[in-house]
Specification:
The protein has seven helices and twelve strands. It has about 325 residues and is α+β, with helices and mostly antiparallel strands. It folds into three domains: about 35-45 and about 215-330, Elongation Factor Tu (Ef-tu), domain 3, CATH 2.40.30; about 50-80 and about 185-210, Beta Barrel (OB fold (Dihydrolipoamide Acetyltransferase, E2P)); about 80-185, Helix Hairpins, CATH 1.10.287.620. The strands form two sheets. It has a six-stranded antiparallel barrel with strand order 1-8-11-10-9-12. The protein has a four-stranded antiparallel beta sheet with strand order 5-4-2-7.
């Protein structure tokens, strides 16, 4: 029980020593660079996109392998659609039935319109005769009632036609929904990239949202580094950068700053002294040009460690060891 506070104190002291050592290493490395250039270490990362099911179902086949390059829109997997196709046939039969009912209802409507027109004409003639004293009031009342009944039957037939047309529209919407579900059962690549993981096998039954594949979007490859406040405060979005990977240290790669965090990372909420403020570290993202990634997509690999150098001052010249044939080309299209 007595060793607990001592162990905690030792761990805190060790953490402070490591942080101080890291800061001293950064300062020493920075001293060998021009004033307008800063750097940090990190690893290549890429946006990950999951290919998942929209509806529950059984996996029939998966057409992509791990490590394979796929194009946006390419079919990567297919789900079982036997039940959906049966439902689609049933819905199409419903559409045909309702359309036939509409035709019958239209014919009945024409009949009711004719009957209403005839009843109205008979009433008109009887009213003229009654005004001349040649038709009794009883006949007038009867034909007036018949005319109203015929109009009501006509209006009811018209409403029945509209109801059946609505039923046809609803049935057609059901057909479109099932047809879309069948198309969605062919899972396509949302982006161009490399298959990183295969998460399911043919024959498995997945719930809605079940993941089958994970794709790395090699059009968005970047490295995240951390810079102190003094450097991050001078860094502009879009500033030029250089990436030196441990795998190919002799070939610096061009890059640009695409993100600078608005808040410091892993620091106390309240920072009182100037020394603490200067030691704050801010997250910075350096992005590789998409044109370069497309040119060398077969060689792009995430997880590779390296260093990212960023230019704080646009007037500062890049040192020779951060120049290469790749940094001389315009990969950003102006």
């Amino acid at each position: 029980m007595r060793r607990g506070p001592k162990l905690l104190l030792a761990m805190i002291v060790l953490g402070v020593m490591l942080a101080a050592g890291g800061w001293s290493w950064w300062q020493g490395r920075q001293a060998r660079l021009p004033e307008g250039i800063a750097f940090g270490n990190g690893r290549l990362e890429a946006e990950q996109v999951d290919v998942a099911t929209q509806y529950a179902g059984r996996v029939v086949e998966i057409l992509a392998r791990e490590g394979e390059m796929v194009e946006a829109g390419q079919v990567l997997a297919r789900m079982d659609t036997a039940e959906l196709e049966a439902q689609l046939r049933q819905a199409e039969a419903e559409v045909r039935r309702f359309r036939h009912s509409v035709e019958e209802a239209l014919a009945l409507l024409e009949q009711r319109r004719g009957e209403a027109l005839l009843a109205a004409r008979n009433l008109d003639r009887t009213l003229r005769l009654a005004s001349q004293g040649h038709a009794p009031q009883q006949t007038v009342d009867r034909q007036r009632t018949e005319a109203r009944s015929a109009e009501a039957a006509r209006d009811a037939a018209a409403r029945h036609v509209e109801a059946l047309r609505d039923a046809v529209e609803a049935a057609e919407a059901g057909v479109q929904r099932l047809d879309q579900q069948i198309r969605d059962a062919s899972l396509r690549a949302p982006r161009t990239g490399r298959v990183q993981y295969r998460l399911a096998q043919p024959g498995e039954v997945l719930a809605p949202g079940g993941k089958l594949l994970t794709i790395l979007d090699l059009g968005d490859v970047h490295m995240t580094i951390f810079l102190p406040a003094r450097a991050a405060g001078r860094l502009a979005i879009g500033a030029e950068a250089r990436l030196v990977l441990d795998a190919v240290p002799e070939t610096p790669l061009p890059g640009r700053v695409s993100f600078v965090a608005a808040r410091a990372q892993f620091t106390p909420r309240q920072v009182e002294t100037r020394e603490e403020r200067e030691n704050l570290m801010y997250r910075v993202r350096v992005k590789l040009p998409p044109a370069l990634l497309r040119r060398y997509e077969d060689q792009v690999k995430v997880g590779i460690t390296g260093l990212a150098y960023v230019r704080l001052d646009p007037e500062t010249r890049w040192p020779d060891h951060l120049q290469s044939r790749l940094t001389e080309a315009d990969w950003w299209g102006g």
